[in-house]
Every structure is written in structure tokens, then in C-alpha cells.
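Final paragraph of the annual report: two paired records, presented back to back.
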Amino acid sequence: MHTLIFDTTAAACSIVLCKEDRIIDSYSKTFDFGQADILIPEIQKMLLRNNVDFSQIKGVFVCVGPGSFTGVRASVSAAKVFSVAYPDLIISGFSAFEGYLSDLSFNDISDCNAVIIETRRDDFYVRFYDSEFTPLNEPQCMSREDIIDFMKRRGCTISIIGDGIERFLNKPSGLVFHCIKMSDNISTEALAKVAHIQQKNHKFNFPKPLYIRSAEFSSGTNN
């Protein structure tokens, strides 16, 4: 069974091709803009390179945000087009929070695990999880001060991950972290892992954009 996983919601266009639970090819490149424009051409190149016809793809998994408004729309729209062209496809979405969380190894996990995603504003997209990866809050925008206050009130070990970490740590927080993982985007390994978990658990969610805030019509704005 071949599966295709992709993400254009952050600063990169990332594509993974798997057979069963094994990555057989991947592509990830960072761009200031234009990730959406290369998604379909790069998918076509990857399939051709591996002698895989799209009819052999049984599942398509896509990151639905939060992130770049244009990037989220591009990923979700591509998945919907594939679902129309190939009605028997498994089509499923996952959040960027789930993607980043999958990049934490067993030794990285804490009692409180915060996924902090860049908004390109003064705040951050944030979701907290316990050691079993059960969500502790709904996805939301939070100020740096509110994030720190939440962590201090938990009074436990803390791990942080996401593309917002570098800016979050620009100033002292007064906190001690068990694990800090900075990343410009979700790794291809983590994308594959999320898709594998959904398949293993037979829990599929038809892709819908995860918009935490309304789109602001200015260049480079995230949703």
C-alpha cells in the first residue's frame, strides 16, 4: 500500500511517499513564498522517479494547519482534488500540532509538552499535551506571557517544539525545559509517522482547514 503525505502550511513544501510504513522517497524545501506552486509538480516528479502511478496510491494525508493561509488552502484543496479524481482513496487531515508532536522521541516527552507555532504576529499558535499526548487545551492563539503563565501553573517538567520556539526564547522565560526542539517545519519522518498512526488506528478525518483566526489580508499573514 502506497501513501502520500504532504504539508505546505509552514515555511516549506514537504512531501513523503511511503510503502506500507516505510518512507521510500521524500522532498522538503524551504521557501519564503510559493510553496503551493510547486506541490503538484513535485508530487508528479516523485511518483515518476519511483515508478508509482497515482492509481497505486491508497491514502493521501495532508497537514491542515494552522499556518500560512495560502499554504493551508493549497494543501487541503489538493487533497480534495485527489478525492474527486480517485473516489476510493483514503483522504485524511492532521493538524500541525500533531505533526510537530510526532517529532518528540520517547526521551523528549515531558509531563507538559507545548507545540508553539509561528503566527508572524506578536502571539503564537499553541496547544499543550500531557505525557500521553492527551490535549490539555483547544488550539488557540496565546501571548508569550500567557504561555509562560500556563507552564508555571502546571508545575511539572516541560518540553517545547515548533517553528515558533526561536522567537519564543528570544527573551528569558524563567522556566527550565526538559527538551527544546527548534524546527522550521515538520520533518518528513514526523509526517510519515502521523499518517501511519492514523492508518494503524483507522481514524481518518477528511481534511478541513484549521483556522484559529480569520485570515488577514496582508502579505505573508498566517491564519
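The closing record of the year follows.
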Amino acid sequence: MIERVARKLGFRSKMLLNLAGIAAMAMPIAFGFVNVNQVRAQAAPATPAQATAAAPAQGIAGTWQGTLNAGRDLRTVVKITKADDGSYKAVFYSIDQGGQPFNANTVTLQGTTVKLALALIGGTYEGKLSADGKTIVGNWSQGPNPIPLTLTRATPETAWEIPTPPAPQPPMAENADPSFEVATIKPNNSGAASMQGLTLRGRNFATRNSSLGDLIAFAYNVQAKQIVGGPDWMDKDRYDIAAVPEQEGVPNAEQLRTMIKKLLTDRFKLAFHNDKKELSAYVLTVGKGGQKLTPTQLKGPLPGIGIRPGAGGITLNMVNATVGDFASFLQMLVLDRPVVDQTGIKGRFDYQCTFAPDDSQFNGHPPPVPPQANATESAPGLFEAIQQQLGLKLDAEKTPVDVIAIDHVEKPSAN
């Protein structure tokens, strides 16, 4: 579903980290979340001046519905309310994908032009309200190719039923020392040069096109240059892995890493010792103007991380993620050296960073930036974007870091 919708919208992500089963942010469809629960965002209201001018008397308050054709038909419901000051708020539902509510960040009505935005997933809708106030004809955009979406004002008789979202799965016991009950490892011969996915949906863990180096980097939270002494095939041979924990419940980040560590020992016969080495690294700190991170809308033990098209570049989307998660993502998949988090920032955040990648990033294979008719100029580079958009700063310096020195490793045992 993710890739089919991505192709429909004209962008195919190079990678996907969806560690919570909550948000496949590379999914370019507005409501493409899986098992998202407890969304409690407050929509940012439009100003009264933005609200009415030349619109039908009833405005846009009410329930609207329409079908988005993005590889398959997705019924969409938008509930819009109007405050006493004339501002609007909206809640989106994709009822064929679970019916979870997503609050819009902005809702405006200027003349007959309706605009809505969901910053959490980088989606926007713009349409024209009909003279009778019964339809809005427009397009949904989350990438370079907008998709038509006509919304019709619903009545109590015509309104679609919104399903009750599934209850969140309980977390794994905090004191659990989990292992995978069963794990299937298969060679991936697609020729892709980088990991294409590492996901946990419910209790189903999977990786696509991951190397042994990728797995070690994730399990031990290190960058590739912190892994020394391994064989050539460690980064060349690639695998698809599917596994299920033997313990009940959804694991947290450390429990997931524990299971992968055990898998590496059992199936790859990995043995190593820890060492210390002075390496060129990036140190992540808070910029002079202070951090600009937004507290998360979501709840759960794990983050959702991914990439989608952005204005003049690509956008890194993260939900329910710590700054440490952000640093880990950068060093694992984007940058060519370790990233040391010295921000001191605690908590989980939803944030976006739009930048133009260069050939030194993503192991020399950055996601392609698709043609974008509405982008008047290129996005800034990664370092400038992080400072401008997130209030954080990356500085290059040499610093002592932990390294994993490989003593022994084998190609994975048969399933």
C-alpha cells in the first residue's frame, strides 16, 4: 500500500523507519497511518480576517466527505467547526484506514478558497467552495503530484459512519528481556544500495534490504564508521527479515534493540569487543535562538520516522521521537560520521525538516528530488535546514567515541 500510493504521487522513498507501527511518514497519503492512537493535537485557528469574505453565509462549518483515489479508493471525512471569533478548526478521518482522527493545524476560508493543512504528515488541501455551499472541489497534496478530492457537505442521512479506531496494543512488560520467537532471513537481490525499511507493526518486525552493518548500527546505536574489522560482505550482502517476539506486547526501543542483538548473535554468530577511538563526528547542540521542536501529538513507546517530497527538496518527518532518535537517524542513514547529542533536550516531539540532500549523504545515494511545479527555489542544505527549522546546530569536530571491533561473524544460518 505504501509504495503503490507513493508511485501514484510520483515519489518513492529511499527508506522507511516505522518503529512504532504508528506512522509510516514516507507514506505520501494524508491518512496513511497504521495503529495511531490517542491523537490530541489542537488545531491552530485561522484569524477572523481570514475566515469569510464573499463566502456563502453558512461558511464551511459542518461535516464534509469525499473519496480520494490514491491507488485504491479511500473515503475521507472532514469535520469542520467554527469558533465564536470566526476561526475554523477541522478533524480529518480516513475511514477505510482505521478512522483515526487527525487535527488540522490551519483551516482558512478566503472568499471561496478553502485551505487546510496537516503539518504532522505534510499534507495540504485546497479547493473552491460552490455558490450553494454544498461542495468543495480541489486537490489533496503531499508530494509533487496533487490528487483530486471533491468534498460534499454531508447530512445526517448521507453521512458515512466513522469506525471506532482499534484499541492500542498493550506495551511489553518493562522488565521483559525479549527474544524473537521466530525469524526468517532471506537474501535481497534487488541491487538497492541502502536499507529500504525497518518496521515494527504491532508485534511484526521486518527489515527490507538491510545489511549486517545496518543491523549492528541500529541494534547498538552506532554509525557505520564505529564498526571496525568486519568482512567485506558485511555491508554488501543484503537481507529481508521477518520476525515476531516470543513475549506479548509491543516492545519499547531498547527491547527491540535487545531482540536484534540476540538475532545477530544467534544467526550471524556475531562476536565483538568494545573500544574507544577518536573520530570525526558531528555534535548536535541547541542553536542561539533556542530549539523549535513541537511536543508530540502521539502516544507510544516508539517513534515513526520517514521521508517524503518537500518544497525544493525532501522532508524528514518524525513523530513521537526524542532528539536522541533524531541523532540516531542522522548517523545511521543520512550522514557519514557519528552524531553526538549534546542538546540536553528531554521529551518526545513531532517535527519536520525540509532540505536538499547532497551526494555525501545517504551513503552516496540520496533520495531523488522529483520535479515540483510549485517550488520556486531549492531547499537549504541539511545543516542550514536543521538550524532554521528545528533550532538545532550540527558542528563537525573530532571527539572520542565508542567503537565496535568485530572479532567474528558468519553469514546467517538457514531458516
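Confidence is low (pLDDT under 50) at residues 1-54. This concludes the annual technical report; the extension proposal builds directly on these records.
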